[in-house]
Design a protein that fits this description.
Strand 1 and strand 2 form a beta hairpin. The chain is 53% helix and 13% strand. It is elongated and about 100 Å long. It is of the alpha+beta class and 236 residues long.
Length: 236
């Protein structure tokens, strides 16, 4: 930008000289015109370079945003485990009856704890409440009491978009960001308040993209608003 300002200043000076051409010789006028054309070309070149840099910056920002989103889901998470956890809907159906606030499902390679969001967070918040902290204290003690492998904390929401202005200010990226930050809050509590090591915990946020039920009723949406803690077996 400084280069353009300098050239524009010189260009303006050339224009001032041109207005004085009536007092100059033909040779001076010709020289002034050539100088003005040269500065004009410099301005065009600098403006083109600036446009190219702005385009490059925009592409970098877009690429960073995409990488940031994709990094929320850790690529080391085994695909076969993912397919097993995606059968959570059928496991719920097989269990029958009302789903409790905290449910445990044993799956090949470990076990999954499904925690309803209502006992962890207020609506539209990623800050743990008192009941959430108490529930997680018991869960952390249970996990730490037995050998285990990696622990995957997975945040989920229903399909209702984030609309409240105060919630949007906190989570401008909507449900994806809300689910990820809720998972972070749960993972941080597990690490800070138990013997679990941070290197063993992986945080994942899915927003509304991994529902256990279609978002067609209040009960289904309740089930979809959840945090899952998958504890893998030691050999995994």
């Amino acid at each position: 930008m400084a280069g353009i300002s300098t050239v524009l200043t010189r260009f303006a000076a050339v224009g001032l000289i041109a207005t004085m051409a009536s007092c100059a010789s033909p040779q001076d006028v010709a020289y002034t015109r050539e100088l003005a054309k040269d500065y004009e070309n410099q301005v065009f070149d600098l403006e083109r370079q600036l446009a190219e840099k702005n385009l490059e910056l925009s592409r970098i920002q877009e690429r960073y945003a995409e990488e940031r989103k994709s990094s929320i889901v850790n690529s080391s998470f085994d695909g076969s485990l993912e397919s097993r956890l995606n059968n959570l809907a059928s496991m719920i159906d097989q269990r029958g009856g009302e789903v409790k606030d905290v449910e445990r499902f044993d799956v090949e390679g470990g076990y999954l704890l499904m925690i309803q969001d209502k006992i962890l967070f207020d609506s539209g918040s990623a800050a743990l409440g008192t009941s959430g902290s108490q529930a997680l204290a018991e869960i952390a003690a249970e996990i730490a009491a037995a050998p285990h492998g990696e622990i995957f904390v997975r945040g989920h929401t229903d399909s209702d978009p984030v609309r409240k202005p105060e919630t949007l200010r906190q989570f401008p990226n909507g449900n994806l960001q809300l689910s990820a930050e809720r998972a972070v809050s749960v993972a941080a509590y597990l690490i800070d308040n138990s013997a679990l090591g941070g290197k063993d915990v992986v945080v994942m946020g899915f927003g509304s993209w991994r529902p256990v039920k279609p978002n067609t009723s209040a009960e289904s949406k309740r089930l979809n608003r959840r945090v899952e803690i998958f504890v893998s077996d030691p050999e995994s």
